[in-house]
Amino acid sequence: MTLAKKQPLLGSVLLDLALLAFSSLLFALSFPSFLSDWGWAPLGFVCLIPLFVVVHRARWAAIPFYGIFFGSVSYAIFNYWLGRFHPLTLVVVPPIYAAWFLLTLPALKLADTLFPSYGYLLQTALWVCYEYFIKSQGYLAYAYGIMGYTQYLFEPFIQIADATGVWGVSALVVYPSALLGNAAKDGLASLRENWRRLLAPAAAYAALFAAVLAYGAVSPVDTGGARQWKLALVQQNIDPWRGGYPAYRDSFEILARQSEKAMAEAPDMIAWSETSFVPAIDWHTRYRTDIQIYDLVRRLREFLEAQPVPYLIGNDDGRLKRRESGEEVRVDYNAAILFEGGRMVDTYRKLHLVPFTEHFPDAWPVRWMRRILTSMDTHFWEKGEQYTVFEAGGVKFSTPICFEDTFGYLCRGFFRRGADVLVNITNDAWSFSVAGAMQHMSMAVFRAVENRRSVVRSTNAGITCMIDPNGRILRVLAPFTEGCLVGSVPVVRGRTTLYTAWGDWLPWVLLALSGAAIAAGTLLRLTGRGNWSRMRRNEAPRQNPHR
User: What pLDDT sits at residue 377?
Assistant: First the structure.
């Protein structure tokens, strides 16, 4: 092959990579990012247009490589703050998404190939299936980057989450990119020539969009007559990597000082963040293996005994566990403990642990990786087993810890077991990034709307806030500052949403429809063997010279 023949191919590849990089940047900027702590939500509706254009114009042989490229670049930009936590995270997370898009882009390409005119409908469904079945399930589940979350401030638009979960919002956000990407797949000239073909699907989308906004206007819960639960959420703003007795003592003194300040406003309960008090309270009370640490625990318990309101405290719950060999070893749980009058009332142990940083398999094929993580001072936790529902002052509440509030299924589980409010305790200080903390908080908004229940977040550094059952952010404490947020949230009871009852039903419906469409499209191709043969030879119909 001569150089002259190679140049067009090289130019096409460079153009594809530029489009993918541009789409990656727009994707990241539609969420809270390094340019905007709150995110640029309108970009969510168009950020994937370049990606869908590349899916159409690229050859089949290039699609897997492009999936790897887009997954790596998009999440390196979107989750840039992970590098502040530890550079190793940028070696772990982007490759995971490279693998996910290695699977997803061929599926999007298949939809475009089987249905050249209406593939955008199937691509929208497949994208939602990717978000649910690939990125939100299993050990590596990581809900950051779901397109619906870009709209967390668009209150009328996100109200359909009480029926569809975040997935219905995602589908509505992705659809314009898929539609316009299909229309522009042969270049801007073809978009100008064929704009009339956009009128019908655009009108249908506009009608659906209007219906969604109408639903958003009539569906919110009237909280006027609901009981108001007054909470004090303490934000101590302590570097999570400072260890040892002096750091634990300083943290306790900040927590106690801010709590006593909050008591002037007579809250019904005070909540401290995830592992806000680091030494295991129950363990050191019983075993007293470190006199200095025990003295600090004793001071805490004396402080709690004198308090007139319940306290929710994030803590390490250390336990003795007997192995099959008969040996007793200490195991630790990332826990939330409710105290009243200094007495431990109940404990919740975290159910969904963060992969790599909180849990890693001890199986022999990956034991070498576990040793590396352990050498880096990674603290592994045991997994809890129960959906605990606490009760304080007549209000039932549950406490998803850290990124547990990013999973709709888990929060739904608490509400189905009787919780009236979610009190998320988290420690986002390790991100050293307001944008990273905002990305986390934005997902909590959807947990409130999905179940029509209030959600509050007590964090070490950000974002400490209160969210009502309609997803409205009522109050926010400035991130990465020491302080205490005191306010009230409505306690809504007696209403069960479709999402609370049925859960993540929409992705399953879209999966069934997608499977049926792909099967039907494949069958049609097999009956028209000329078109199918061209696809197998990586050729395209003559009217489209780009494929």
Answer: 60
